From TrEMBL:
One of its GO terms (molecular function) is ATP binding. Pfam families: CbiA (PF01656). The lineage of its organism: Bacteria, Bacillati, Bacillota, Clostridia, Eubacteriales. SUPFAM superfamilies: P-loop containing nucleoside triphosphate hydrolases. GO terms for biological process: negative regulation of cell division. This is AAA family ATPase. One of its GO terms (cellular component) is cytoplasmic side of plasma membrane. Residues 6-233 form the CobQ/CobB/MinD/ParA nucleotide binding domain. It comes from Acetobacterium paludosum. InterPro entries: CobQ/CobB/MinD/ParA_Nub-bd_dom (IPR002586), CooC (IPR014433), P-loop_NTPase (IPR027417), ParA/MinD_ATPase (IPR050625).
């Protein structure tokens, strides 16, 4: 059975950057197989990982919708469900030490309910084939409230140093309790802290929210430079402050030891 890790928090706090560095570290430790999932309609985990994505779940949905509108027949003897599953399997991109699945989005107006449903169905099918399932969630709480992720063994809440960010992850933690989701471990990472140190106001808010802080990732000029030039963050030097801090946090979480 896979060990399922979900990363959540409000937008713009660096969830995807940390997710990419987490995946890289697990691959370096020789662990796997790993399924990395970008569950954000505005997908960019592949950019952090330095991967090209040829097909997303949202694109499959659009492809099948357009074929139905145009009256394009399916191959003889193939049902719509079988064809959908075939295309979903093709959306799993194989990489070096992990596979990548991207939710993406359909075109035009409308909610993402159907695409979310397809993602949930595909995760239910695929999860049993992997040691780790690592899901980079979209900003907010939708995937948790919809039960898209199914079983969650570790929920990593990511915030910046702002009170709004801490309050946002506090609400996510509260939603887990309200939905009676059985998540055995919920930890907080504060990202982009100046000099890697929390000020008194941030620390006070964390204590007020009753969050379990596992570590702090410092603001890193290297991350800014790589993002500015579109370089994959997995190519950051090993001594980059953000990368070093994230790896130390992963070691404290003991998820590597638990799977060996």
């Amino acid at each position: 059975m896979s060990f399922n890790i979900a990363i959540a928090g409000k937008g713009g706090v660096g969830k995807t950057s940390l997710t990419g560095m987490l995946i890289e570290y697990l691959v370096e430790q020789g662990l796997g197989p790993i399924l990395a999932v970008d569950a954000d309609a505005n997908a960019n985990l592949n950019e952090v990982l330095g991967e090209e994505v040829d097909l997303s779940i949202g694109e499959i949905k659009e492809e099948i919708n357009k074929a139905e509108v145009a009256g394009v027949p399916l191959p003889i003897g193939v049902t719509k469900a079988d064809f959908m599953q075939l295309r979903l399997n093709q959306a799993v991109a194989e990489s070096n030490g992990y596979d990548l699945l991207v939710m993406g989005r359909g075109q035009g107006a409308g909610c993402y309910c159907y695409v979310n449903g397809l993602l949930k169905t595909q995760l239910d099918v695929l999860a049993k084939n992997y040691q780790y399932l690592i899901v980079d969630n979209e900003a907010g709480m939708e995937h948790l409230s919809r039960g898209t992720l199914g079983k969650i063994d570790l929920l990593i809440l990511v915030s910046d140093c702002s009170r709004r960010g801490i309050q946002a992850v506090g609400r996510i933690r509260d939603l887990v309790a309200e939905l009676k989701l059985k998540v055995p471990t919920i930890k907080l990472i504060v990202n982009r802290a100046p000099d890697g140190v929390l000020n008194a106001g941030t620390s006070e808010e964390i204590e007020k929210e009753g969050l379990d802080l596992i570590g702090v990732v410092p603001m890193d000029q290297n991350v800014f430079e790589f993002d500015s030039y579109g370089k994959p963050l997995v190519d950051l030097p090993a001594d980059s402050p953000a990368k070093a801090a994230l790896r130390a946090i992963v070691d404290k979480l003991e998820i590597i030891k638990n799977k060996k």
